[in-house]
Amino acid sequence: MSAIELLSWARGPALQFSVAVFIVGILIRVLEIWILGRKKDLSEPKAAGFSAGMRTIFTRSLPPPGMLKYLISGYIFHIGFFVVLFFFVPHILFFKDVLGFAWFGLPNGLIDGITILSLASLLYTLSIRLSDPVRRMLSNFNDYFAWTVTFLPLLTGYLAFHRHITDYTLMLAIHILTVNLLLISFPFTKLTHAVTLFASRWYNGAIAGRKGVKV
Amino acid sequence: MRRDETLADYLKQQGISRRGFLKFCAATASMMALPLGATEAIAKALSLAKRPSVIWLSFQECTGCTESLTRSSRPTLESLILDAISLDYHHTLQAASGSAAEEAREYAMQQNKGEYILIVDGSIPVKDDGIYSTIAGITNLQMLKDTAQHAAAIVSVGSCAAFGGIPHANPNPTGAVPVMDIIKDKPIINVPGCPPIPVVITGVLSHYLTYGTIPELDTLKRPLAFFGDTIHDRCYRRPFYDQGKFAKTFDDEGARKGWCLYELGCKGPTTHNACATAKWNGGTSFPIESGHPCLGCSEPDFWDAGGFYQPISTADFDVNKLATTAVVAGAAAGAAFGLYNRHKKSSAEHQHHKTSTDELKE
Q1: What is the band of A186 on the pLDDT scale with cuts at 50, 70, 90?
Q2: Which of B214, B297, B293 is nearest to B261 (CA)?
Q3: Is the ipTM value over 0.90, yes or no?
Q4: Which among B314, B325, B337 has CB closest to A94?
Q5: Contacting residues of A for B313, CB less than 8 Å apart
Q6: Are strands B153-157 and B188-191 parallel, antiparallel or unpaired?
């Protein structure tokens, strides 16, 4: 199989399968949680739960004391990944093809810089996980797997853009294949947090708020 | 050109000066990235070259490759060299036909056994024993096998001969395959393109005549000197790509200003060919220069590699259709899982045995 054939397969049947798994998987995960439901809380609320929940969505994004350095790298990675995914022109063209509308893209040079920062912050978070004995003990295969499937699309995208290691066609095919891997793993690993994050934060905040806890 | 004539004599007769000939040799050496001194070697070898025998087989093709080489607006040095190497058999160009033509081929094969160069354009149908394309009652498959047997080297000209091309496109009713899928024991040089660039063919032939070997090839057997870079890497519109300046339609401001055609489906980034440097029509321009995106015609299966006007970064299928099906399937599966878990939860609640104080007293 030549590089161009691999590319056609990656952006054809392989992507088709991955998108299907991604959508079906995410829906299964979310509906499963939602349909299971929670026992009705019959106690008299001490304060409003809803607003406490909304507040928690925001406050949990703020760095707790002493954790600033970790959170900075977390911020850089998350914002960086978001920007690279949604503001790199070829990516926008993908979304335009699906959604029917587009938005402005950022210059390639800027995207390039942000990619490097995101990669560096991911490496930094991995180094923390490995160097801290407690974190290392708590980490299992799933944690390293989630890190790897997130790191690879960024890395291969960067290599493809700069024509490093191998020819662009092959690297682009590998890049799309790593994206496919990310899509398939997404619903079945901790990466699902991207979808459930705000709902679970709100829920925790709302329970605490209802009990009168200051959040 | 007579058989005992040298190439230099022939070109002289055609009004090509020594200076013009040397310029061609220098250009060939430079195009093929050969070292300094290669110009002289090429000039010497080509001057002394005596009419190498070339058999040109045309199979499932549109004659576009031959047209590209021979029908330029004025005779180029490339086409003269092509004339000079002489074609002992080329059923589109030769005067003879029928059994006389086939005799010419067989004669050339016998006379130059193990020395002739075989040029093939067009793909070879192999389904149903290759009956879908025959010449003088001989299937293309059989003719290729017979003629390749005593060839010194094979040049697959055009995307059909190199990769199967359009006949090979889905659903490939004739079972068309490229030359390299059939012949495994001969040196094969692929010169893909729909059509290929004339100078690439003469470059390959000059290299063979000069060094007696085939040039360095990539993994798809294409000469690296011409197919080492992508169109995108050598494109004069590349700076616009880097600046994020794209033509959005064929007649917008960006298109008029000559901005990058990536958004209009240009396959330049994944296409290896020399169009951006060798150019077409006597060095006039190449498709992107005329405002049209590259179709990627020198890559395998370019006909099936997504829409010509779809950017490379888009999905090669209808995502919305797939997403709709997936949402319905996901919702159904999610609901099923959810309800099952709910059922499990409530049956666990029902089975929960409440211990009364009376029971504890016992």
Answers
A1: very high
A2: B293
A3: no
A4: B314
A5: 90-91, 93-94
A6: parallel
